[in-house]
Here is the input.
Amino acid sequence: MKTMNHAVRMICYWLVLVSGILGAAPLAFAQGTEQENNNTCQSAQDFGQNTLPFVVDGNLNPTDATPGAPGDVDFYRFSAPPGTILKVDLEGQSTGKGTLGDPFLGYFDSLCNLVAFDDDYQSLNSRLTITVPADGVLVLAAQSCCDAGFSGGGEGTYQLTLSPLAAIGSIHGQVVDAESGIPLPGDSPYYTTVTLLQCSTSFCDPVGYVATASDGTFAFTQDFSGQPLEAGSYLIYAYTQGYQQYQSDRFDVSEGQDHDLGTIPLTAYPSIGSISGRVVDALSGVPLSGQDFPYGYVYLYQCATVDLCYTIKSTNVDGAGRFLFVSDYPGQLPPGNYEVRAYAQDYQEGRKAALD
Here is the structure.
């Protein structure tokens, strides 16, 4: 009896172990292996519809090239429900998924028309985000850079991975002046912009760029190519004239989430109040009008050194020879050295240090 109970316990143990293994199976990638001859779109290896993620191990081998072709290229045909958003990665040496040095990924429709291709995505690997077309068919080509005609020539092993894209809702916020709290718009005089970067474990790549609205708000829902943004880690840069650039910490956004960054405060560079004066005749002291003859005019120069000055503003003087320079936006006139240069018909140029 003891022996039988022991055997029953062992059977139950193995059932639990097998159950655990089977329970974990859906986490594993479905897998396929490249088979020749798949050197043209028309002869693409057909994998049909599979459980995702799906991985293909392939090899670009010159000995597999179609006779007369410059080298090998591998085509694969897949099926998926129309409207499904897929992430397709072609990886090689950069991530240890093969020996192919610079993967080059192509996407063709069911009639073998080239729809899109990608060379480098956050490394020498390639990635495309694809919305499955109405007929449910997509053809993918694995090649080495930069064979945009996909005629052949690559050499090396690789992995091609199809995964469902976990799309976020949005990333949004509002850019404001740190001191006053006023919104900083994307049009004149601020020209406020926000750059969105998607981050891997090692670095971040720009994926979006927008100007803020009139109330300083912004929102990202798509990347540069118009594709949905993937769940993951991001950061932003915000910039406007006369303000210090803002960089956020990394933040994570999950599938379907609308991530609110709240108000993003930008700090203005220090600025002087104004520079003013009057243009006069050097001998008589009579003001020189800018409204009529001799048409007085002044330029404001900012000087890095005595001999290195560059113009930043200019204006006509008024009827009494007066002029006034003020900032059009914060930080336009930072503390430092300036020079005013005055001009009028029949007069030599006049110069004067405005701030030393």
